[in-house]
Amino acid sequence: MDNSITLKDIKKSNYTSIFHLIYQHEKLSKQEIANQLHLSLPTVTQNLVRLEEEKLIEKSGQFESSVGRRATAYTVCTLARISIGVEIQKKTVNILAIDLKGHAFKQIKRSIDYSNVASYYQELSETVESFISSLNLAKEQVLGITFAVQALTSADGDKITYGKILNMTGLDISVFSQYLDYPCRFAHDAKCAATTELWVRNDIGDAVYLSIGTHLGGALIINDQIYMGKEGFSGTVEHMTIDPSGPACYCGKNGCMETYSSINALLAVDESLETFFKQVRSNNPTFVARWDQFLEQLAFSINNIHLVLNRDFILGGHISPFLNDKDLEILHMKIYDKTAFPSIEPFIHLSCSPENGVPIGAAIPFIQSFLDSV
Asked: What's the CATH number where 163 sits?
């Protein structure tokens, strides 16, 4: 026996185990908790009382029983703590709140043109503050706010290290935190989308995540963790050069994957994804040809990445709800025609994350940190 383990450690372990067991189930009875954790009923009762007092769990009716007294059901108070995700884009912001289960329970979208000026940060901060107030929660229930940006950020989320899309390189989180009395941080939007994918799936392991939105973004997942690399830009395949004499990219170079495999590269001015794919699915020859060319370029890039990283690929971002199995089949066929190592085993999959994967993924780390602390 390890004599360094104290009674306090054991009590903490029991408290943690009971909370997480209830968290993993919709409802549990006291006896079920005792049976699964091999704890005495008095120990379970003591911890349930404490968790109830701290408003982390609550009674939720009773279980059906054909004999004897019906057992009380316990469940997690999903609103015991919440987190806020804010997705910043050029002309809009998407703000939502997620609960302890990672479910978005309230959301607003606002048309606010981004500008790197104090008035913008104040206006957005006031919009976020108003949103939080509308939730009617105590201040201590709000764990923090993450601003998802089309930019690379420092490891601690305090600074924008590379933000040419919206001209925000060097921006400090104080532009928001000076107005918001909550922990605030920045996060790369593609990494946020990948975080949501990891949250809703437990079978990823290693993968390359491609977020095909207005701009292209990537994330490298290793051992179910997002790998940032030495300087924080691992996975940024959007700036892999496809053709040095290709279209100009916002990064200042030419022919980046961004210029071929983003929604900006796919759509004409004032064209929407809904309109485009309606035409594709109606077999409009012009749109079918444009889509085929887009898939051709995407296949070229994926094949190159796949030769370096022989892992599965996940396609997410704003385009993913419009994709179907036939699109993936065509994409695979195009890659098999290009690769030195053709295989019939499919390795490209559609994202399983919900529509608002970026702001949800932005908010998840605060929730995860809290769960880890219980």
From this structure: 3.30.420.40
CATH of the domain at 22: 1.10.10.10
pTM confidence score:
0.91
Judged by DSSP in three states, 368 sits in helix
Q: How far apart are CA 82 and CA 146, in angstroms?
A: 12
1 in a structural domain? no
For residue 2, tell me if it sits in a domain: no
> 212 Cβ partners below 8 Å, 6+ apart?
261, 262, 263, 315, 316, 317, 318, 319, 320
Q: pLDDT of the chain along its 374 residues, tens only?
A: 455 788 888 999 999 999 999 999 989 999 999 999 999 999 999 999 999 999 999 999 888 766 667 889 999 999 999 999 999 999 999 999 999 999 999 999 999 999 999 999 999 999 999 999 999 999 999 999 999 999 999 999 999 999 999 999 999 999 999 999 999 999 999 999 999 999 999 889 999 999 999 999 999 999 999 998 888 888 899 999 999 999 999 999 999 999 999 999 999 999 999 999 999 999 999 999 999 999 999 999 999 999 999 999 999 998 999 999 999 999 999 999 999 998 888 999 999 887 789 999 999 999 999 999 99
Handedness of CA 218, 222, 225, 229 (dihedral sign): negative
Domain count, the chain: 3
If asked whether residues 96 and 171 sit together in one domain, one would say yes
SS3 226: strand
Select from 60, 76, 92 the last residue of a domain. Answer: 76
**At 211, which helix (H) or strand (E)?**
strand 207-212
